[in-house]
What we know:
- The protein has helices spanning 2-16, 23-42, 49-74, 93-97, 102-109, 111-118, 129-152, 156-160, 164-177, 189-198, 239-246, 265-274, 284-287, 296-302, 320-327, 350-365, 404-428, 451-461, 467-470, 497-505, 574-592, and strands at 214-220, 231-232, 235-236, 250-253, 256-257, 306-311, 331-333, 343-344, 347-348, 372-377, 435-441, 475-478, 486-488, 492-493, 539-540, 544-547, 558-561, 567-568.
- It is built from 21 helices and 18 strands.
- The strands form five sheets. The protein has an eight-stranded mixed β-sheet, with helices on both faces. A four-stranded antiparallel β-sheet has the order 15-16-17-18.
- Helix 16 packs parallel to helix 17 (404-428).
- It is of the alpha/beta class.
Amino acid sequence: MLSLLLTLKILLFMHITRVKHNRALVFLISLLVILFCYSLIYLRNSRKKYSLGFLFYAAVSLIIFVDVVYYSYFNALPSIRMVKQIGQVPAVGDSVKTLLSFRNLLFLLDLPLAFLYSRRKRSIRRFNRYISWGIPGGIALTLVVSLAILSRLGLFGPVTNQELFTYHAKDIKKAIMKEDIGDIETLTGKDIADLKKRSEFVEGKYTGLGKGKNLIVIQVESLQNFVINHFHKGQEVTPNLNRLIKEKGSLYFNNYYQQLGRGNTSDAEFVSHNSLYPSMEEPTYVQYEQNTFYGLPWILRDNGYTAWALHGYEKDFWNRKRAYVNQGFQRFISQEDYELVETIGFGLTDGEFFKQSMAYLKELDSIDENPFYAFMITLTSHNPFEMPERHQYLNIRDEYKDTLLGNYLQSIHYTDKAIGQFIEDLKREGLYEESVLVIYGDHFAINSLNENDQKLMTQYLGYPYDLDEMLKVPLIIHIPGLEANETITRVGSMLDFLPTILNIMGYENQKGIMFGVDLINYEGENFVAPQTYALKGSIITDEILLEMSRDGIFENSRVYNIKTRELLNPLDFIEEHQMVIEEINKSNYILKTDFFAQ
Length: 598
């Protein structure tokens, strides 16, 4: 009975995780594992076998549940390494609740009945040892032979990348064996020379206009690009950001993409500060806490700046307290340094965060005659975007009230309002004209990989809400004294943040390596290589998006023209695919070997 129910759960699991290729083979391997385990359990001459059968059923059901909840948000299966982050789940409880659909909960809802079924009194049928060991042995042999045949046919990876049991077995083996270096063994002298050459400072447009100025960077929670210059029922959703974009001295990058790993928000700041790809094993701030880095805080410090980070939440979340030391921040202003006079969701509201942070900025400005770097992280516009009525300023259309979209528009409008007040406070304190102000979104708000949300957004926006639109976040840079106003449309990502900011600030990265480019002055083609929500090997350019197939077979990937939505042949872009894999592997090597400490 339980083996049949577990088989049905496997089929539902395959549906939710979108197994499209080699479905029969994926199901066969799962079925053989289930039959092996249950034959080994139920053919035992033991009264405990029914309890053991339930325990196996419950354990697999729980694993599947965790997998589908994680997959529902990240479009990937979780790694055993993420168990270290289990302590952070209560903090994001409201966000997790949005993933607890009835379909996902089906994997757990039957466990009480399954437990009662396992406790039924029944006679114990005895089997001889030939049956007790022969049947499980035969199934095990069939499983081993099947995997060997898949390996010979070149299908072992494509099947096990999607199949429940073998995926986790490979993942656990990798964690235990500490296969850390990945696909490359070393960086050649030519690789290092090329990366150093790419990281050289080259004067160009807007170079050094921010030199000697303070730098204030605001990383805005869940700020997507589609809300910029967007109206809802005639109401401006982000009027203050729109006003800033139109000001003299403002540069707006409207083709800018998130670049995350397992650390989500924390990886957004890591990539932005260091121009390195993030870890795909654990949050980068956790896995590489002790590494030596030479990113934006260190570079500015070497040029006389004092670098502080400010965030209205717990200092240990995402391991920021410990990771910030090697990132180069000299002080971390966190939740314990603020008065929690008003909280929403995670913690301190953005309004109070900016209001109370002004005193710290003034303190930072008074340390010496040199300029400062302030990195500020907002919080209120975090999933599930539920705002108290007193802060619901927009009149939302009836069909979008109490939906994820309607709630998001309210929350990001509130954050925009808080940013607008902060800008006015900077002007009042005389800091606005003395500071380069940078604002960007850390990651998407609404998931295009969720079928219902994708349909809702496509209908609402009037154009396809696909992966490219989902991953796009705005980058806004305001430079005091600059007479120009420009919208830069060339493709870029958080990887390009550091070289772009260094050009404006007029400082050179003398000790580090950057994988990004200066988005203002680069020549030739640029690209984005996402590894979350689209798998490693995916690529976004000015023209196309290549979404790597989950089975690992390149030919099964999806490619479309971003402008026309026309589907294209993946084989026409295999060189680009191989290039981004090489780039990511080089960056991984730098992280895994603590390259800058050598």
